Amino acid sequence: MTRQALPMSAPLARSAMAYVLAGGRGSRLMELTDRRAKPAVYFGGKSRIIDFALSNALNSGIRRIGVATQYKAHSLIRHLQRGWNFLRPERNESFDILPASQRISEHQWYAGTADAVYQNLDIIETNTVEYMVILAGDHIYKMDYELMLQQHVDQKADVTIGCLEVPRMEATGFGVMHVDEKDQIIAFVEKPKDPPGIPGNPDMALASMGIYVFSMKFLEQELIRDANDPNSSRDFGKDIIPHIVKHGKAVAHRFTKSCVRSSHENEAYWRDVGTVDAYWEANIDLTDVVPALDLYDQDWPIWTFSELTPPAKFVHDTDGRRGQAVSSLVSGGCLVSGASLRHSLLFTGVRINSYSEVENAVVLPYVNIARSARLKNVVIDRGVQIPEGLVVGEDPVLDDRRFRRTDKGICLITQPMIDRLTA
């Protein structure tokens, strides 16, 4: 049966599928990814990191979405099943969770990012899409993919790559695009020591965001070609993209052209929260009076699974035992009982007991902080039971012995670390 062509005015997103690569561990987040993949790490009080890529797709008008998972995927899959099960096939929508399942060979998991798409081509083809938007599932940003799709079609590109403009010598950890005056990519360099500058702006470089747009037919041909190459590592950044740059037409799409900003956001916000320091900083930044990332933007909501919880509660009002919070985000189900909270972010169901003082803290769901604790510059993993009187953030030497302390002085606290203290 021939699919009826959409009118010329129809958004391209209606003919596109978003495919989110969410299999990575994110080892630089240390113990935060011991039990969950990086895309499943909590962010912003009630979301997971992957919710930003998924919400961008949904808000852009894309209604067919696939998510490839691999490393310790249970937490991620459970979140996706609970929070993203509202897309309906009877409305020509789909949401597929695609764990590595040895579908090609009983000895082969996903060998690389390209292989994570190749192994599921038969499933993807059931969606009969014209365009594929490949997304990394581990960054914080708001972006309208429709604008990137439009550029891809207008410039008749084989691949369009989302790019950030970054100071040239800060681009050494990225894949960097060397472009001409029309932003056509003439070379792709992975983590160069001397990144190429942008024409007309040599102090800046174009770094890959890990976002790619292809026509589905072209992508399928490229994936099959790559799968038959014995020398390939089956990776978009290492294999597919360099081959297209050399033999086809690759075009850079600048994030500033399609980033979504509310009236309160001044910058084109994008963060890789891939280290404990970066993760802590991005969450704490949300406590600013006017944060760089506006989570209150109703025109571009961040969709997620929302637990049913009672409102946050603050109790006791005597000197030295006053439940209060200053410049903080406090999620549903939290109880601040005679404790003080400053420049901190509490996820769902956190309890802070009397006489405790918490400052510059990112506290994941269902943590219990016992009485008289003093915690400063910390990230506390889900469900940790902080013992009575624990002091963190005042003695760097002691903190370094007991917890995971970063070079910037942020302490990551997990339950096994607490158990060793009380053993």
Automatic annotation (TrEMBL):
Residues 310-413 form the Glucose-1-phosphate adenylyltransferase/Bifunctional protein GlmU-like C-terminal hexapeptide domain. The record marks Q70, W109 as: Could play a key role in the communication between the regulatory and the substrate sites. Alpha-D-glucose 1-phosphate binds at Y110, G175, E190, K191, S208. Keywords: ATP-binding, Carbohydrate metabolism, Glycogen biosynthesis, Glycogen metabolism, Nucleotide-binding, Nucleotidyltransferase, Transferase. Its EC number is 2.7.7.27. Pathway: Glycan biosynthesis; glycogen biosynthesis. It comes from the Bacteria. The keyword Transferase applies. Coiled coil: none annotated. The keyword Nucleotidyltransferase applies. It catalyses: alpha-D-glucose 1-phosphate + ATP + H(+) = ADP-alpha-D-glucose + diphosphate. One of its GO terms (molecular function) is glucose-1-phosphate adenylyltransferase activity. Residues 19-287 form the Nucleotidyl transferase domain. Pfam families: Hexapep_GlmU (PF24894), NTP_transferase (PF00483). Homotetramer. HAMAP family: GlgC. Belongs to the bacterial/plant glucose-1-phosphate adenylyltransferase family. Involved in the biosynthesis of ADP-glucose, a building block required for the elongation reactions to produce glycogen. Catalyzes the reaction between ATP and alpha-D-glucose 1-phosphate (G1P) to produce pyrophosphate and ADP-Glc. This is Glucose-1-phosphate adenylyltransferase. The gene is glgC.
